[in-house]
Amino acid sequence: MEPPNGTMTQATLPVPTDGARSRWSWALTAGISALVVWSALGTRVEPSTILSVETLLAVVQYIARAFPPDLSSSFLAEVGSGVIETLAISVSGTFVAIVTGACLAVFAARTVVFGSIGDDGNTRFWLRALLTSTYLAARTMLSLLRTVPEMVWALLFVFAVGLGPFPGVLALGVHTAGVLGKLFSEVFEDVSSRPLEALQSCGASRITMFAYGVLPQALPQCIAYSLYRWEVSIRAAAILGFVGAGGLGQQIHLAINLFFEHQLLTLVAAIYVTVTIVDALSTALRRSLR
Amino acid sequence: MSDVRRTYLFWIALSGAVGLSLWKADVRMNDLFAPDARSQMAAMVRSMFPPELAPSFLRSMITPTAETLQISVMGMAVAIAIGFPLSLLATATITWSGILHERYSSSSRGVGFVPYAVARSFLSILRSIPEVVWGLMFVRAVGLGPFAGVLAIGVAYGGMLGKVYSEILEGVNLRPAETLQASGASRLAVVTYGMLPAALPALASYTLYRWECAIRASAILGFVGAGGLGQQIELSLRMFNFHEVATLLLILWGFVFAVETLSAMVRRSLAR
């Protein structure tokens, strides 16, 4: 709750004194420095290695070898079909994720599961236990789905359904469902409770309250999040091919392993163009929603 | 066009695009539930249990886990080193437009526009190429090992940090900067004392959020030979040792969860 003016909060909230504040920031700085030093030692990456002439030379030589890009028409046709497949994987994956994520999000939103209002304490014990376990199960599920990286999901699905774009769609769908489900459930929890109170006082059921009270408020934000995840998905779709899940990644993997640097440059340029177009499209769509 | 018709058109176009994609990506959901795939997946899940919990295996996983963390930290250090300077150039209010530049002629503002445009397009190239692709290329350029992973995260995340930093800097209130400029402060002093203090909490908060992403990325980069947990997961998968895969996924889960909690705590204290 935002207080109407700041004068009262100053008296009631424990405002850290300057001493506590600066001690805290000193501790934070020291902690971060220690972490960086430990990491530099562990990865054997010193500033001198990063800035060394050798590193720079190696990178520049590698890039120079890749020029000029392979622009033969037969290869461009191959790249074109790779781009289309990557786009198709990202759209399908995001679609699967929206459907799965939304279903799970309903059960992972505290206010939707328990009802934000009118919880008069008379709810029966077993019902409460059932709701709590559903809620916890949905949360854990979402957290598991999003912690396992797309690449690992793709490997598992390649084992299950074989090579091709389909395991890529499943991998993207499952991982992104975990992310979107969490975001959706937060949006569901944050909607204004006024319309819900009005609906409940008219005797609406829990489902009616969700459909007419929560969804209309949450939808714009949910669509914005889905578009944002589509931008992330297109990048992921471009690399899932490394483990045999279709798209541009497969061609990139091949080009790198066979030292076809000219083709690699074309493929990387294709990724850049595709990602830029998707970003622009998604931004335009999000703006038109506003 | 009326609003209703536009909405209809939008939904028709969207469902068309989704339908086309599902067809192009060869999505046959039946395949997933076919007896063959079901038994395959069930066998895989069953072979994950119980997770490998032998002390010797767990002990040998400490180093890769630490390495994943270390790659992410060093990657972020490189990313900040790349992203921050570029973000200053890519901030329109610093280089060429807005209230700080009203006193200059349009030609001298045009000179400021050149580094702005160059920095923007450079950042866009860095962030549009996925970190795994960067990783593969760096493995070729500087050899296998954590260094390639650090560079991959540094370059890709440098592009993202740079873009978001510049957006944050463009959003700060310019009044203090204007005051400094009016009293004769140099461009550097205007940015350091007039803009950065206001932007710092948002910059730090976004950097922490990106660090969470960097940990996941550093775990994946192992797949292309950049060390860490990813490499162990790949090795265990290649050897069909699903008990170990289960343990590794659990480690990754707990690890990411711990970092997310820590980062959320710090971010909350920054917002105060």
Question: Key terms for this structure?
Answer:
heterodimer; A: 290 residues; mainly alpha; MetI-like fold; 0% strand; disordered N terminus; B: 272 residues; 13 helices; 82% helix
Describe the oligomeric state of these chains in a short phrase.
heterodimer
- At CATH level 3, the topology of the largest domain in chain A is MetI-like fold
| Count of domains of chain A | 2
How far apart lie the N and C ends of chain B?
A: 47 Å
Count of helical stretches of chain B: 13
Description:
The complex is a heterodimer of chains A (290) and B (272). Chain A is mostly helical and 290 residues long. Chain A has two domains: 20-65, no CATH class; 73-289, MetI-like fold (Orthogonal Bundle), CATH 1.10.3720.10. Chain A is 80% helix and 0% strand. Chain A starts with 5 loop residues before the first helix and ends with a helix. Chain B has 272 residues and is an all-alpha fold. Chain B has one domain: MetI-like fold (Orthogonal Bundle), CATH 1.10.3720.10. Chain B contains 13 helices and no strands. Classes of the chains: A mainly alpha (290), B mainly alpha (272). At the A-B interface, helix 2, helix 4, helix 5, helix 7 and helix 8 of A face helix 1, helix 3, helix 5, helix 7 and helix 8 of B.
Q: Could you give a short description of this structure?
A:
The complex is a heterodimer of chains A (290) and B (272). Chain A has 13 helices and no strands.
